[in-house]
Amino acid sequence: MKTPTTLRSIIRNLTALAFAFALGLGFAGGASAQSKTLVNVDKSGLAVQGYDVAYFTDSKPAKGSPQFASTHGGGTYQFASAGHKAAFDKEPAKYAPQFGGYCPWGVAKDSLFKIEPDAFQIVGGRLLLQYDKSIRAT
User: Fold this and answer.
1) Which is more confidently placed, 19 or 37?
2) β partners of residue 60
3) Angle, CA of 115, 138 and 60, to the nearest 5°
4) What secondary structure, in 3-state letters, does the chain show?
5) Do 120 and 136 touch, CB atoms closer than 8 A?
6) What is the pLDDT of residues 20-74, one digit of tens each?
7) pLDDT at position 113
8) Domain tally for the chain?
9) Neighbours of 40 (CB within 10 A)
10) Which residue range forms the structural domain that includes residue 99?
11) Burial level of 39, CB count in 10 A (0-12/13-18/19+)?
12) Rounded to two decimals, what is the model's pTM?
């Protein structure tokens, strides 16, 4: 029997959430032992490859500056302006990417993929960063 598309989508989403939950509890590498939060960071601890909350304010990625930086959930976030930093500091959960900044499609496939900063979507007020723009079609 063929599984309906909607049911497959629900199963895939539940799998992604379960996997993200397990990773958030520290069952896989990349989770901070103190905060138990999964964050996609580079070797220096920089999150979102140094991109700023402009995904929400300008509907496009913008490179942040070390001059305007905040830490949250085990990563250092950089911003293009003091105003963007202040907005993030006030509501970091609103602006921080879902799945710790990893590609949701990869998480659903039990893998942690790097992201391309310009491959993003805001869904339900949440930032999703993808491996590349072609992932949106899958």
Assistant:
1) 37
2) none
3) 45
4) CCCCHHHHHHHHHHHHHHHHHHHHCCCCCCECCCCCCECCECCCCEEHHHECCHHHHCCCCCECEEEEEEEECCEEEEECCHHHHHHHHHCHHHHCCHHHHCCHHHHHCCCCCCCCCCCEEEECCEEEECCCHHHHHC
5) no
6) 444 443 333 344 444 456 789 999 999 999 999 899 999 999 999 999 999 999 9
7) 87
8) 1
9) 21
10) 5-137
11) buried
12) 0.70
> Cβ distance 115 to 130 under 8 Å?
yes
Retrieve residue 50's tokens.
């140094």
Predicted pLDDT at 53: 85
**Structure-token pair, residue 86:** 């202040």
Q: What are 108's two structure tokens?
A: 């659903």
**What is the distance between the alpha carbons of residues 5 and 112, in angstroms, rounded to a whole number?**
24
Q: Any idea which residue has 């379960």 for tokens?
A: 18
Compare 35 and 85 and report the one with higher pLDDT: 85
How many whole angstroms separate alpha carbon 32 and alpha carbon 38?
A: 7
By the 8 A CB rule, do 64 and 83 touch? no
Residue 112 CA to residue 78 CA, distance in Å, equals: 22
